[in-house]
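Re-run with default settings, no changes from the original entry. Doing this only to confirm the output is reproducible before filing.
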Amino acid sequence: MQIALDAMGGDHAPGPIVAGAVQAVQADPEIRVVLVGDRAQIETCLAAAGAPSDRLDVFHCTQVVTMEETPVEALRKKPDNSISRCWQLLAERKVDAIVSAGNTGAMVAGGLRLRRFLKNVRRPGIAAVMPTLRGPCVLIDVGANVSPKAQHLFQYGVMGEIFVKHVLKREKPTIGLMNVGSEEAKGNDLAKETHALFNSSTLREQFVGNIEGRDIHRGAADVVVTDGFVGNVVLKVCEGVFEFLMKMTFKEVLGALNTERGQGQQALQNLVDRYDYSEHGGAPLLGIDGICIICHGSSGAKAIKNALAVAANYARVKLNERIVQELEATTPVGVEEDS
């Protein structure tokens, strides 16, 4: 399993990124990582980590797309950047997957420029695993496509269903459409058209209809479909609320405990760890001909290690092959092609 890792992407790169790669190859003998970025910085980090050299390679490039830069403009002005070089390695089939904690917009734009989509996929979408009372669900899209068409949203539902079935191991995943109300007539034209597509497809028995934002963590659906703008806002609001609640809980609840303080603190820490984004590694950009994992910008070594493991797992379960098969079987007839 050859994986290109953007060593320069992320808030704390390259140190924790390289450390995560070292941990990944130590944990899984089938993973080989190509570290893409400035050779001198990467080799310094590798030397500090005492890394094995047999499954860690370096692909040198001279430029970096920062978090603050406009994605498309940065990719154009900096052709030798680490994100573009990762996509180049994937396009040339020199690697099976790419992983980055860098500029999310640039990662998506890099994929759109190559247009290496799976058969029948109109637009790729980012799938994020979300905690619920019934176990994890998938929210898709969380930032790749802010102005989708109904067919794009329908395909996100199909890809999300495959993801939940084969990665989260849920036998017959349910699909819900994010909306401002549960009634079928609610929402804008996009929501109504998407609703109709699901109802006219072979997934209609798994489609539970419209769900509201408060229904996500209740576990109303295994797959929650939405556009990239709303999905990104929802994801970041949830991250912020969870962080706020955990900090307040540590401060108020533990401060009030007179006995068993150590056990209470450990219980709360276990809860934090269970829903920590680093446990999931990163979010896949589904619909790409290849595997692309987009990590949180603040990812440390643990998150990068897990992201590389996730990429390897997606290859093992043949996620992309299953997506292609499902799209061919479920895409509603009569939908016009778009560019």
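The first helix runs from residue 15 to 27. The chain has a mean pLDDT of 89.
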